[in-house]
Design brief:
alpha+beta; two-stranded antiparallel ribbon; single chain; 7-stranded mixed beta sheet
């Protein structure tokens, strides 16, 4: 994103008081790994989800950019609520599922979300719902409490639910020998393997 564009965005906070937003007004937020809580989400993805340790990855080639458009609305159906249209883009390290070599994976995910007061959470209408239809779109449903919207939970969930579950460094990856464990992309072995 160009520097001129960045000047029209507010840095993405981890939490936001809904009352800080003007009713029916739109505000845009931009976040990246220069913001500590966003860097921690990316580090968690690499460290815990993919078990990439600190020696293997210093986050220097990893990045996560979050661009959110947030509109505060109020009506009888959803009460005082936020409509969020967002994009997650970037790259991160993950082990290839065939050979376990570290590989860079990309994400480019657009999402729509609606945050409504926790007062609606136990209402029969929303008790079992994970999505709602609002502003002619289907949106993921989230709840805020004490007028605080938690962007950390939103970004964490959107990232972890939308990454490839079986990352490959190359479609033609030969993987590991199931007998001796040799990485067949780098070496060969003399093990007798049944042909696929």
């Amino acid at each position: 994103m160009a520097i001129a564009d960045e000047q029209h965005h507010t840095p993405l906070p981890e939490t936001l008081k809904i009352t800080k937003l003007t009713l029916n007004g739109e505000k845009t937020f931009l976040g990246n790994i220069d913001i500590p809580w966003i860097k921690e989400i990316l580090s968690e993805l690499e460290r815990e989800y993919f078990e990439i340790n600190a020696e293997e990855n210093d986050n220097s080639s990893s990045n996560l950019i979050i661009d959110l458009s947030v509109i505060r609305k109020k009506n009888d159906e959803f009460g005082d609520h936020l409509i969020i249209r967002g994009t997650l883009s970037g790259n991160y390290k993950a082990p290839c599922v065939r050979c376990l070599d570290s590989t860079t994976q990309n994400i480019n995910h657009q999402f729509r979300a609606l945050f409504m007061s926790e007062l609606f959470e136990k209402a029969q209408t929303y008790e079992e719902e994970t999505e709602v239809f609002c502003a002619e779109e289907t949106m993921d449903l989230y709840f805020y409490s004490n007028n605080n919207v938690n962007f950390n939970d939103l970004i964490h969930e959107q990232l972890f639910l939308n990454i490839p579950q079986f990352p490959l460094h190359d479609e033609n990856c030969r993987g590991l020998c199931p007998i001796c464990g040799t990485n067949l992309n780098h070496d060969s072995c003399s093990c007798q393997r049944p042909e696929d």
